[in-house]
């Protein structure tokens, strides 16, 4: 996508007026370079309130397992809520909630303190104690944020599971984290209509033959849509019955800086999702710092809006922890961009006077497609900073974003980071950096990155493409994969030896030394900024009784970045039946729905191609590169390493269905 656009790019110098008020400064680069640990220690002390100061900034003696701000104690929820009230900012709006149905709720920091305290008391009354895990399977409503912060208050790590995941995916994640409580809603609003949600939890927790029961003792249910629900006596409890009557006071206990804050599952190269886990002090420090210097949040004047779903890391770091730690005022929107009309986002920007907007390239490209006239109908003049995250933003979308949303002047921060990094790593600083569309540019102050070639040597050829690595530990880094130390070392710290964190992204420099991210180099796809694993979708397809074998690739897609394309070999009897009945289309639909049921609607393939064979090397490895050529309608590349080089012709001739 971004591939060869990295030469001869125009640049945009920072506006001097913006620079004057910017939180980020050029001096930060120099200070961080001179003494990175001292730089981070200062960020931690300036931005976070510690109940016990730390005595060591970084302990890397057990690398790659890091400890940051060792000996320090803090409570993350106290930092995000109570201290703002104590500082006299209780009346400041924390959240302007905008519901799908047009219902709204204004939550000040004082309100937030009461709600979070009540929720913490409620969870404690259900037996949740420090160290217990709580699964959160909820839409974008205030109660979701209350629950996350209540967990942080109690020191009970949360595991938020995106509301688009299906029962099996939910079950696996609940079991892996050994969650005691699940918090959910009866249903969720989707494009103006209620859709059931608790029913998925019921299915996820239902007893299964040959499997032990799930560890869940309680399901706490918010009534959001008035959807009918089944009820398991003794297990299920209404939020209103348990939370509403609780005391509005709750004392937040200090936690060790390295106390686990949350687990968040993400796709890796194998089918089993990885529980990425983050801890307290370092994570919160880097979230607060980046939200201040990259988004340039000024809590007393800005209205910030991050459009990410709370089920992904962006929602964790830049809707919950970063902005709330900074005491910012933000918008939280429950619905989709086109409900009830395609101008809904711009209507929200106008209504609340949003000054900082953080979203994903896939959304920007969708708005481009819908037309310039839609945002033009609204007053977007409040916007002063724009952000992008999730995948490379192509220069064309960048220019459109600046022109049509940013009034031709707002700086755009293209922020590269990952679930694993916890917070922004590579990005321009608005007001400091000369912007170059399409490039995430440079590591932010305090972060060090490099691009290595196949042999692990730093890239020297300016035309070459290599692998992005991070060369120093950073405060918000993952502390591991939940329950799997080996997989952590192997996935991130072995490709180029144990000194380099391997990000899994291809990258190159341009002639200005700016970094261009070129997409994943492993079997992870990026669909609308969501990470999906080819292996996970393949195993979902193979679990269908009619499927013998499956291969999945991510093919370029104009709007979603990549789209899931599946190649499927049917079992003999299914093949016969399909031939006889000529029911290819129905079967394709059936397989797409099956993936939807197994993993969730986001994983449904755009295309399912039924093929007689798959291209394999002599050692039996599927050559996805060739399938990608087919999926992207290209001339098929080099087939010399195929065990049988006639296979590609068979595939092209034999494709019986397309959806
Ligand atoms: C991709 C999302 C290019 C990248 C925060 C990374 C990006 C993966 C950018 C992480 C960007 C994210 N430019 N690529 N600005 N931001 N990516 O874990 O491939 O959902 O490895 O975290 O998204 O996705 P994740």
Task: Write up this protein.
- With 659 residues, this protein is an alpha/beta fold.
- The protein has 21 helices and 30 strands.
- The strands form 8 sheets. An 8-stranded mixed sheet has the order 12-11-8-6-7-14-15-23, sandwiched between helices.
- Helix 15 links the parallel strand 19 (385-389) and strand 20.
- Helix 5 (109-125) crosses helix 6.
- Mean pLDDT is 93; it is low at 1-7.
- The structure holds 5'-O-[(S)-ethoxy(hydroxy)phosphoryl]adenosine (WTA).
Number of helices: 21
Q: In total, how many beta strands?
A: 30
Q: Biggest sheet, open or closed, and with what strands and sense?
A: 8 strands, mixed
The average pLDDT score comes to: 93
Q: How much helix is in the residues?
A: 25-40%
Radius of gyration: 25 Å
**Secondary structure category:** alpha/beta
Distance between the termini: 23 Å
Low-confidence residue ranges: 1-7
Can you give me a brief rundown of this structure?
32% of the residues lie in helices and 22% in strands. The protein is of the alpha/beta class and 659 residues long.
Could you outline the blueprint of secondary structure elements for this entry?
Elements: H1 16-21, H2 26-34, H3 36-47, E1 56-59, E2 67-70, E3 73-74, H4 76-89, E4 93-98, E5 104-108, H5 109-125, E6 133-137, H6 142-154, E7 158-160, H7 167-177, E8 179-185, E9 187-190, E10 193-196, H8 198-205, E11 218-222, E12 236-238, H9 239-242, E13 255-256, E14 260-266, E15 274-279, H10 281-293, E16 303-306, H11 313-325, E17 329-333, H12 344-352, E18 356-359, H13 361-370, H14 373-376, E19 385-389, H15 395-405, E20 412-415, E21 449-452, E22 466-470, E23 480-481, H16 485-492, E24 501-509, E25 515-520, E26 524-527, E27 530-533, H17 534-542, E28 547-557, E29 561-570, H18 572-581, H19 584-598, E30 607-610, H20 624-631, H21 647-654
Parallel strand pairs: 4-17, 6-7, 6-8, 7-14, 8-11, 11-12, 16-17, 16-18, 18-19, 19-20, 29-30
Antiparallel strand pairs: 1-2, 3-13, 4-5, 9-10, 14-15, 15-23, 21-22, 22-24, 24-25, 26-27, 28-29
Helix pairs in contact: 2-3, 3-10, 4-5, 4-6, 4-11, 5-6, 7-8, 10-11, 13-15
The site of 5'-O-[(S)-ethoxy(hydroxy)phosphoryl]adenosine has 23 residues, from helix 11, strand 20, strand 24 and strand 25.
């Amino acid at each position: 996508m971004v591939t060869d656009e990295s030469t001869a790019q125009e640049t945009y110098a920072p506006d001097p007026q913006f620079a004057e008020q910017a939180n980020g400064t050029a001096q930060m680069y120099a200070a961080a370079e001179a003494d990175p640990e001292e730089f981070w220690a200062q960020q931690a002390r300036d931005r976070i309130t510690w109940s016990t100061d730390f005595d060591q900034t970084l302990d890397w003696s057990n690398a790659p397992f890091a400890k940051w701000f060792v000996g320090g104690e803090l409570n993350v929820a106290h930092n995000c809520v109570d201290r703002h009230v104590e500082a006299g900012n209780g009346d400041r709006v924390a959240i302007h909630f905008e519901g799908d149905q047009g219902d709204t709720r204004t939550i000040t920091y004082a309100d937030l303190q009461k709600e979070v305290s009540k929720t913490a008391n409620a969870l404690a009354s259900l037996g949740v104690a420090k160290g217990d895990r709580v699964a959160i399977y909820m839409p974008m409503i205030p109660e979701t944020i209350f629950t996350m912060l209540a967990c942080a208050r109690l020191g009970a790590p949360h595991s938020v599971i995106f509301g688009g995941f299906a029962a099996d995916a939910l079950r696996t994640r609940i079991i892996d984290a050994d969650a005691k409580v699940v918090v959910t809603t009866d249903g969720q609003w989707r494009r103006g209509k209620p859709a059931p949600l608790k029913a998925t939890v019921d299915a996820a927790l239902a007893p299964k033959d040959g499997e032990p029961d799930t560890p869940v003792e309680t399901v706490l249910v918010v009534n959001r849509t008035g959807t009918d629900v089944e009820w398991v006596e003794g297990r299920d409890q209404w939020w209103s019955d348990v939370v509403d009557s609780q005391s509005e006071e709750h004392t937040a206990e200090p936690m060790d800086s390295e106390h686990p804050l949350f687990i968040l599952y993400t796709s890796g190269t194998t089918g089993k999702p990885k529980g990425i886990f983050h801890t307290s002090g370092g994570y919160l420090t880097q979230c607060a710092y980046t939200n201040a210097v990259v988004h340039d949040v000024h809590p007393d004047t800005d209205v910030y809006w991050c459009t990410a779903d709370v089920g992904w890391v962006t929602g964790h770091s830049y809707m919950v922890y970063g902005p709330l730690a900074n005491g910012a005022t933000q918008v939280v929107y429950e619905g989709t961009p086109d409900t009830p009309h395609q101008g809904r986002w711009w209507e929200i920007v106008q209504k609340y006077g949003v000054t900082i907007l953080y979203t994903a390239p896939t959304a920007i490209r969708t708005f481009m497609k819908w037309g310039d006239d839609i945002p033009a109908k609204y007053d977007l003049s409040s916007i002063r900073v724009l952000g992008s995250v999730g995948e490379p933003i192509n220069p064309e979308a960048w220019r459109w974003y600046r022109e049509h949303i940013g009034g031709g002047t707002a700086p755009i921060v293209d922020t590269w980071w990952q679930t694993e990094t916890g917070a922004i790593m590579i990005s321009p600083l608005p007001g400091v950096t000369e912007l170059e569309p399409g490039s995430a540019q440079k590591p932010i102050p305090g972060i060090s990155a490099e691009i290595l070639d196949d042999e692990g040597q730093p890239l020297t050829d300016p035309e070459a493409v290599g692998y992005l690595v991070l060369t120093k530990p950073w405060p918000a880094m993952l502390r591991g994969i939940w329950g799997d130390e080996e997989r952590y070392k192997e996935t991130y710290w072995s490709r180029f030896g144990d000194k380099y964190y391997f990000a899994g992204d291809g990258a190159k420099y341009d002639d200005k030394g700016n970094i261009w991210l070129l997409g994943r180099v492993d079997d992870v796809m990026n669909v609308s900024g969501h990470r999906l694993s080819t292996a996970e979708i393949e195993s979902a397809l193979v679990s269908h009784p009619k499927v013998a074998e499956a291969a999945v690739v991510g093919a370029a897609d104009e709007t979603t970045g990549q789209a899931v394309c599946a190649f499927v070999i049917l079992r003999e009897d299914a093949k016969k039946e399909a031939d006889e009945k000529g029911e290819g289309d129905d079967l394709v639909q059936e397989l797409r729905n099956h993936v939807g049921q197994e993993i969730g609607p986001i994983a449904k393939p755009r295309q399912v191609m039924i093929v007689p064979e798959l291209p394999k090397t002599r050692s039996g490895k599927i050559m996805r590169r060739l399938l990608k050529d087919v999926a992207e309608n290209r001339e098929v590349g080099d087939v010399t390493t195929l065990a049988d080089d006639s296979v590609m012709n068979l595939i092209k001739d034999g494709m019986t269905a397309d959806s």
